[in-house]
């Protein structure tokens, strides 16, 4: 933020206040328009942490209207207020922790009415002190011949000496020194007062600058706005554009932040310029401009700034050796440095992908990795390269207000924000992307700017907190309804020149490959406040002309640069821009999401195709997700459609499958494509989590959500990668006759035919392709219109062949299923990625008794990942006893009870099917411990249930048997000779006893009916 100096005054009583004694603060707010009419004001005070920056507040006292301790009292003068407080009590701190008090004066705790500057009260230590009470400013301007009234105060009676320009002009012994100085000097003059007693000395100083007219001088050839470096490494030339201003001084570390006529800039028309010499090669210097004796700003063209409020939170690992914010400065400061080590570019001949082949990955550095810097993205480029994207679009990275921002509040348009890394880190990231064939696109914000921008602060109305009416770049009031921050006037030649300079800079200094321009529909002056919002979106020729002018300026020096607009205006206007060669965002988030949700309303996706919009070139970047839209999968699991008890799109595995299907349709439609980060993993955290622009959880396993180790999410990644590879590998996607068939709302067919059509294609250059997807909640027989009969091959089925005898051919697709067919057999893709290849609902169950265990077997053990739920009943409903997956071939129920009849069934469920098997009834038998501690493992008695006989195998020696009913009555008996005839027994449960000299076996069995 710039500093606008004021004549606001304050005094303290006593003049040297101590922390533990009452202090009366008197303020005069007559020079602060936002406070001048207030009847009540409050103190907003803090204790600065002077170890880092005396502007960094700690222990802020929340002064509100409810806190009488912070409320000033009125005086007879309506602009003068007083407040008495004891610092130790006010801050609840011991005296040794209060060395200085920073404060503002506010009308209330939320309004804009406040003093513009941070003011400070130095707390006395009780030792000898001396200070100037008049003048109260550290420095000020005067005219030659004027008189300066000087008053110096000492904390105790002492020998006082006043020097002007190192010449003694007054001495006395006492506590007060008064002197009237007649200004006869020129330049910047130092005034010093010294108090001494008993060998103890204290001093204070101020400076006055004798005004002199700005020198008019022609600027050296080749000088541009901003910082100009020279072959002489001890020299720079600074240039500031400031129409209507009369004086500009450079202040900085080379002159202790005090204006000096030595550093007064010369003027050449509307440009102010100055050569600065004597710099140390390679040393960083912080500086600012002091304009018209009241405005202090950084250089709007600086490529590095220091921010006292945010730099302390930049991690050292991200920006090692960051320059410490300088003492004596206030607000954002610019940095210059001669003899900077240039970045050594490894890739100097990068060939950008063609516009129509682009697959763009939109990325926010802050939320991509927990390290939140460029190096962390470099570390994950293998992941992005594996996905197949050929362009990365960075959300805004130029210096913005704060650290944790989306970046759409830019303040310095030539300085990369330090929170993401150094300038060379950014260049290294771009260089590494280029080495992998990946273009890098910068999200550029030129619709508006933050108030910290020097272009705003140079012409600023503090009373309204808006740009002043004479601001050459900015509108006082935004000229469109959805503006944020402060609106650029794109009809202004000043703005156009600034825009062109910004656009040239990033393409050439950092080798960005193009821009995505934010909110280009705002580049208009025709909308007035209160007008119909629809008028803003309607056709606007002035806006078109402004935008075409900007694009042409870019292409004049960078013919291959991508120019992408977030325009979202009436199609009649977008068509003109698209036909001019500009790519435009196309928001299809709602439409594609309606398909994944399973709702037909608003599910048409034909507007994703540039020819549907009657555009001449494939310049439409339709997207399913962007940083501005809700996540597909989040909306699915929150609001998805379902059939109760059957198919539910809210289930995550089903939602992920349906995103695969929408992706298959999306990538088949011609034109450049875009992925918002982690859409390929089915990111399902809402855009509103932590606030719309707040930080979002990262998906990685190392410190994040673990999505990259989730099998189902990785299958979506793999499917996306295959679709991207398909799009970028074959000419059919950029040279085809495309048909989108949506005759049934939730059934999509996209056909790509070679132009001209070849009936017997023989190469991939003449390949035809068809995508069909079913977004209904039930299976659907679909009449698929193949371009021709003959053999077609499924892309996601290991190349399985489909014979098409006639077209249309009816195919059954399960809910959420998609298929891609080509008439050229392409390299095989694993069927397991989609779960839709020859879909078979798991069915079938059989059972048998082995010993005392019930073994269940299901017939289907397909490659589809399936969960089997085993249910058991004893006559009154089924209970779930276990869940197993498809790699288990059987289940043994070991919790059965003796002499109990069970009925089993299995529910088989995968992402798309739920089916119940036929029921199977089995009955348990009982084994009773024998003489030798158990039943012989070799003994087998079967079948159970028995109908005509019991077969007995594995008995040792000569044995006898006896059959008893459950009442213990003997029914049959005899010798065991291999089997026992039970045909005469009535239906029921019996006990078979087998014994010999060593063993006794008792086995319960069931006699079945005839």
Automatic annotation (TrEMBL):
Return the SUPFAM superfamilies for the record. Answer: (Trans)glycosidases, E set domains, Fibronectin type III
Q: Which residues form the Fibronectin type-III domain?
A: 838-927
Instruction: Identify the Pfam families for this entry.
Output: Alpha-amylase, fn3, Por_Secre_tail
List GO BP terms, alphabetically.
carbohydrate metabolic process
What's the family?
Answer: Belongs to the glycosyl hydrolase 13 family.
**Name under which the protein is recorded:** T9SS type A sorting domain-containing protein
List the Gene3D superfamilies: Glycosidases, Immunoglobulins
Q: Which InterPro entries match?
A: FN3_dom, FN3_sf, GH, GH13_cat_dom, Ig-like_fold, Ig_E-set, Secre_tail
């Amino acid at each position: 933020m710039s500093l606008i100096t004021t004549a606001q005054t304050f005094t303290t009583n006593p003049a040297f206040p101590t922390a533990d004694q009452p202090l009366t603060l008197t303020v005069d707010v007559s020079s602060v328009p936002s406070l001048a009419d207030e009847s009540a004001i409050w103190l907003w005070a803090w204790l600065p942490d002077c170890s880092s920056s005396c502007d960094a507040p700690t222990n802020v006292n929340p002064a509100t209207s409810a806190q009488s301790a912070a409320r000033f009292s009125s005086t007879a003068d309506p602009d003068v207020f007083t407040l008495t407080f004891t610092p130790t009590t006010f801050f609840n701190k011991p005296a040794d922790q209060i060395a200085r008090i920073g404060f503002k004066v506010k009308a209330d705790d939320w309004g804009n009415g406040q003093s513009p500057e941070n003011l400070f009260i130095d707390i006395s230590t009780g030792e000898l002190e001396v200070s100037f009470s008049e003048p109260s400013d550290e420095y000020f301007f005067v005219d030659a011949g004027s008189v300066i009234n000087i008053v110096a105060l000492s904390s105790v009676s002492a020998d006082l000496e006043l020097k002007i320009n190192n010449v003694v002009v007054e001495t006395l012994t006492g506590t007060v020194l008064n002197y009237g100085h007649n200004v006869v000097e020129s330049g910047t003059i130092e005034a010093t007062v010294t108090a001494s007693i008993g060998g103890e000395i204290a001093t204070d100083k101020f400076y006055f600058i004798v005004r002199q007219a700005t020198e008019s001088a022609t600027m050296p050839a080749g000088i541009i706005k901003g910082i100009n470096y020279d072959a002489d490494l001890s020299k720079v030339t600074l240039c500031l554009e400031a129409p209507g201003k009369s004086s500009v001084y450079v202040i900085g570390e080379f002159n202790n932040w005090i204006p000096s006529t030595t550093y007064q800039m010369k003027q050449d028309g509307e440009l102010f310029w100055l050569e600065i010499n004597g710099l140390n090669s390679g040393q960083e210097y912080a500086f600012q401009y002091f304009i018209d004796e009241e405005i202090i700003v950084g250089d709007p063209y600086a490529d590095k700034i220091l921010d006292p409020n945010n730099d302390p939170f930049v991690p050292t690992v991200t920006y090692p050796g960051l320059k410490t914010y300088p003492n004596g400065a206030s607000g954002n400061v610019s940095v210059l440095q001669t003899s900077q080590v240039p970045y050594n570019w490894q890739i100097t001949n990068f060939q950008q992908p063609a516009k129509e082949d682009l697959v763009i990955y939109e990325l926010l550095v802050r939320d991509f990795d927990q390290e939140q810097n460029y190096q962390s993205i470099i570390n994950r480029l293998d992941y992005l390269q594996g996905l197949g994207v050929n362009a990365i679009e960075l959300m805004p990275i130029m210096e913005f207000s704060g650290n944790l921002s989306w970046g759409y509040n830019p303040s310095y348009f030539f300085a990369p924000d330090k929170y993401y890394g150094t300038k060379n880190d950014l260049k290294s990231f771009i260089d590494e992307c280029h080495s992998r064939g990946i273009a890098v696109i910068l999200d550029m914000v030129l619709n508006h700017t933050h108030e910290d921008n020097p272009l705003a602060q140079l012409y600023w109305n503090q009373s309204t907190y808006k740009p002043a009416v004479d601001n050459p770049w900015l509108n006082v009031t935004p000229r469109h309804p959805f503006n944020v921050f402060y609106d650029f006037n794109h009809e202004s030649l000043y703005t156009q020149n600034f825009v062109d300079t910004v656009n040239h800079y990033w393409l050439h200094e950092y080798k960005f490959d193009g821009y995505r321009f934010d909110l280009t529909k705002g580049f208009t002056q025709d909308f007035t406040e209160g007008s119909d919002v629809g008028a803003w979106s309607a056709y606007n020729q002035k806006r078109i002309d402004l935008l075409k002018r900007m694009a042409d300026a870019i292409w004049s020096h960078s013919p291959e640069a991508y120019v992408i607009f977030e325009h979202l205006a009436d199609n009649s206007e977008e068509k003109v821009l698209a036909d001019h060669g500009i790519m435009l965002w196309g928001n299809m988030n709602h439409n594609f999401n309606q398909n994944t949700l399973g709702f037909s309303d608003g599910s048409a996706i034909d507007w994703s195709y540039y020819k549907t919009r009657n555009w001449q070139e494939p310049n439409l970047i339709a997207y399913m997700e962007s940083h501005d839209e809700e996540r597909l999968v989040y909306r699915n699991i929150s609001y998805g459609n379902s059939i109760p008890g059957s198919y539910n799109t809210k289930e995550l595995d089903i939602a992920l499958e349906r995103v695969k299907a929408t992706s298959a349709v999306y990538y088949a439609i011609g034109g450049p494509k875009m992925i918002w980060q982690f859409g390929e993993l089915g990111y399902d955290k809402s855009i509103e989590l932590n606030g719309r622009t707040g930080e979002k959880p990262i998906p990685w396993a190392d410190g994040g959500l673990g999505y990259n180790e989730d099998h189902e999410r990785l299958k979506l990644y793999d499917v996306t990668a295959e679709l991207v590879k398909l799009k970028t590998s074959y000419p059919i996607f950029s040279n085809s006759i495309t048909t989108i068939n949506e005759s049934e709302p939730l059934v999509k067919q996209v056909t790509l035919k070679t132009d001209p059509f070849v009936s017997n294609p023989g190469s991939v250059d003449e390949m035809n392709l068809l995508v069909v997807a079913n977004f209904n909640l039930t299976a659907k027989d679909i009449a698929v219109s193949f371009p021709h009969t003959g053999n077609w091959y499924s892309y996601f089925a290991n190349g399985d062949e489909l014979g098409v005898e006639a077209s249309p051919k009816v195919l059954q697709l399960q809910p959420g299923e998609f298929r891609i067919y080509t008439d050229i057999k392409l390299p095989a893709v694993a069927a397991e990625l989609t779960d839709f290849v020859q879909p078979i609902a798991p069915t079938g169950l059989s059972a048998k008794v082995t010993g005392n265990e019930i073994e269940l077997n299901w017939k289907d053990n397909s490659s589809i990942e399936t969960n089997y739920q085993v249910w058991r009943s004893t006559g009154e409903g089924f209970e779930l006893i276990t869940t197993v997956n498809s790699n288990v071939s059987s289940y043994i129920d070991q919790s059965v009870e003796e002499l109990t009849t069970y009925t089993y069934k299995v529910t088989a469920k995968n992402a798309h099917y739920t089916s119940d098997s036929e029921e199977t009834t089995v009955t348990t038998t009982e084994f009773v411990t024998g003489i030798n501690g158990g039943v012989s493992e070799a003994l087998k008695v079967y079948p159970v249930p028995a109908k005509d006989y019991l077969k007995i195998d594995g008995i040792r020696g000569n044995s006898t048997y006896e059959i008893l009913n459950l009442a213990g009555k003997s029914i049959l008996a005899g010798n065991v000779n291999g089997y026992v005839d039970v045909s005469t027994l009535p239906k029921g449960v019996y006990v078979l006893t087998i014994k010999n000299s060593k063993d006794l076996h008792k086995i319960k069995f069931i006699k079945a009916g005839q």
